[in-house]
Design goal:
This protein is α/β, with parallel strands linked by helices and 332 residues long. The protein has a domain of 225 residues: 3-Layer(aba) Sandwich (Rossmann fold). Helices cover 42% and strands 17% of the residues. It contains 13 helices and twelve strands. The strands form three sheets. The chain has a seven-stranded parallel β-sheet with strand order 3-2-1-4-5-6-10, with helices on both faces. The chain has a three-stranded mixed β-sheet with strand order 7-9-11. Strands 8-12 form a two-stranded parallel ribbon. α1 links the parallel β1 and β2. α1 crosses α7, α4 packs parallel to α5 and α6 crosses α10. Bound molecules: nicotinamide-adenine-dinucleotide (NAD). Nicotinamide-adenine-dinucleotide binds next to α1, α4, β5 and β7. Nicotinamide-adenine-dinucleotide (NAD) binds next to α1, α4, β5 and β7.
């Protein structure tokens, strides 16, 4: 089986490639990544000399490149996306390019070469929920440029399934955490700033709720959807760990033995969604997947990884962590 992974130098893509190379050693993996924010070559350093792994630096918006790579593959896993809500507020255009045009570029190639596509989406397409959990039928209601571009990509995918009978599955996941996540996101940012005894910013009141899942559980759910899912269907993937930002940050501080006086409340994010929640009964009942890791266990693994891999993040300044910019030292 030849698989093409897009965005494989990013957080989830790199964990997915490591998961596949461990559990499916016969698979040939090609990884294409534009090396935008979120990517890190160190993420897959251990695969550097592996025969079954090939890396290509490239943009999914490049139609010719995608055409060549898709033709050589049996299936595409599309992780590539601009992924941070805050940056989507300051630079929406990058999100429109990668998340909408990039998806279109892949869709055209999978249509032309009749290849399977697993498209990775997010719970954020459903917007903020006061109560209950979103199942696959709920109407989209995205709030940020990030979530709207992800929702737009999904609509485009659906149109290719309906109009061209394309063989595509969408997976939609809640907030991931784990090793290799770029420190612009809440959990790694909190861990690293706490290790450095720096102030940890929390938006608004910190009561906003997200449902958290360990990245390895997400990778397993994606493979389950690939192996057992039906074309044209979408599958919600949730960790059933709804926690507020306050709870998350306090848990991390407690586990690291740091004081809560490091917390600093800052002005809220514009349009900040209060709560996301997914109902993943469908993937559980129809495909037999459920998460394996408990939240505390997975958080412990994650904290230990950041403590043991300081080389991975030490080139980043505090400013880069807070606003999501890379420097050349870190990038090597
Ligand atoms: N992180 C989460 O909690 C979460 C939750 C649900 C869904 N998702 C989705 O999972 C996917 C991966 O998210 P992540 O957290 O790993 O993000 P990430 O920012 O860590 O990684 C994204 C990767 O995509 C690459 N990329 C971006 N635009 C590209 C382009 N035009 N061409 C080639 N490569 C490009 C980046 O260089 C980066 O390596 C995204 O589609 C995201 O929407 C993420």
């Amino acid at each position: 089986m030849k698989i093409l992974v897009t965005g494989g130098l990013g957080f989830i893509g790199s964990n997915f490639i490591l998961y596949v190379s461990k559990h499916f050693p016969d698979f040939k993996i090609t990884n294409v990544d534009a090396e935008f924010v979120g990517s890190n070559r160190l993420n897959l350093y251990e695969l550097k000399n592996k025969k079954n792994y090939e890396y290509i630096k490239g943009n999914i918006c490049n139609r010719d490149l995608m055409d060549r790579l898709v033709e050589k593959s049996d299936v595409v896993f599309n992780f590539a996306a601009e992924s941070h809500v805050d940056r989507s507020i300051t630079d929406p255009e990058a999100f429109v390019n990668s998340n909408i045009f990039g998806t279109y570029s892949i869709l055209e190639s999978v249509r032309k070469h009749k290849r399977k596509l697993i498209h990775i989406s997010t719970d954020e397409v459903f917007g903020s929920l006061k109560s209950g959990s979103a199942d696959e039928q709920l109407r989209f209601n995205p709030s940020s440029p990030y979530s709207s571009t992800k929702a737009s990509a999904e609509l485009l995918v659906n149109s290719y399934c309906t109009t061209f009978d394309a063989d595509i599955i969408i997976t939609r996941c809640t907030n991931n955490f784990g090793p290799r996540q770029f420190p612009e996101k809440l959990i790694p940012k909190t861990i690293i700033l706490a290790i450095k005894n720096k102030k940890i910013p929390i938006f608004g009141t910190g009561r906003n709720v997200r449902d958290w899942i360990f990245v390895v559980d997400h990778c397993e759910a994606i493979m389950t959807a690939f192996k057992k899912g039906k074309p044209g269907q979408s599958y919600n993937i949730s960790g059933y760990n709804e926690l507020s930002n306050n709870q998350i940050v306090r848990k991390i501080l407690r586990m690291l033995g740091k004081p809560t006086s490091l917390i600093k409340y800052v002005g809220d994010r514009p349009g900040h969604d209060f709560r996301y929640s997914l109902d993943s009964t469908k993937i559980k009942k129809e495909l037999g997947w459920k998460p394996k890791y408990g939240f505390e266990e997975a958080l412990d693994i994650t904290i230990r990884w950041y403590l043991e891999n300081k080389k991975w993040w030490k080139g980043l300044s505090e400013k880069q962590m807070l606003v999501g910019k890379k420097n050349s030292k870190y990038d090597k």
